[in-house]
C-alpha cells in the first residue's frame, strides 16, 4: 500500500470514529468512550505519518514540508483546524501560534471549524506543500469576511546576520510604516493582509514603531525588539486600532 493510501485510510478512520464518538456523547457514554479511543488510536497513527513521513519502502524521510497556523481573526472564537479530515488543532484561540507540523509534499485539504462544531466551515482551502518549504497559514479579518494569508517562511539565515519582516493583520488600521524609533523607515506603505519581504540586518536590540504611512503619527511602539544572529523574525500586527481586542505586535521566529 502506498504512503498516500495509508495516510488517507488513517485520516478517514480517525474522522469516522470522531463523528461516532460525538454522536453518542450524550446518549450512550460507553459507546462514546469506545469510539473516542478508536479515534485517538487512528489520529495517533495519522499524526505519526504526518510528523515522521515514514514509508515502508524506506523513501527519504525528508520528502516533506512544514506548516504552522496563527489565529489572527479578531472576532472569531476558538477554532478546530483539520488537515485531510483529521483535527490537528483543537480549541485554537485568538493570538495562538502553533508549532510547525511536518506534512508530506503534495496537495492537502485544510478546513477551519468553530471549536467543537463541524456543521459548517469558517474557512476551507486546498494547499500545496513543496519539499523542504516552511509555511505559515493565518486566518485574518472579521469573521464575516475572514480570509487566509499564506506566508512562505525563510528560517535559514547566515551566521552573522538576522532577518526581519512585517505582516499587517489589523483590519481597521490604515497603511503603516515600520520605522526605527525617531529614525528611518524600514518598511513602508504596508496595508492590511500584506506582508513585506525579509530585510537582512545585523543582530541587535532595537526600538521600532508602527506609524501611519507617510507620517510621524505613531500607532504602536515596538520596544526592545531583540534580533539574534542566525534567526529570522516576523512582526505580526494584530487586533484593532479602535476597539477590542487591542492593537498589539507579536514577534515570531521565521
What does this entry look like structurally?
- The structure is a single chain.
- This protein is an alpha+beta fold and 254 residues long.
- The chain has 3 domains: 8-56; 61-153, Immunoglobulin-like; 154-253, Immunoglobulin-like (Sandwich).
- The chain is 18% helix and 42% strand.
- It contains 2 helices and 16 strands.
- A hairpin with a 4-residue loop joins strand 10 and strand 11.
- Helix 1 (3-23) packs antiparallel against helix 2.
- It is globular, with a radius of gyration of 21 Å.
- The two termini are 36 Å apart.
- This is DUF4397 domain-containing protein.
Brief summary:
By secondary structure, the chain is an alpha+beta fold. It is built from two helices and 16 strands. The longest helix has 24 residues, at about 30-50.
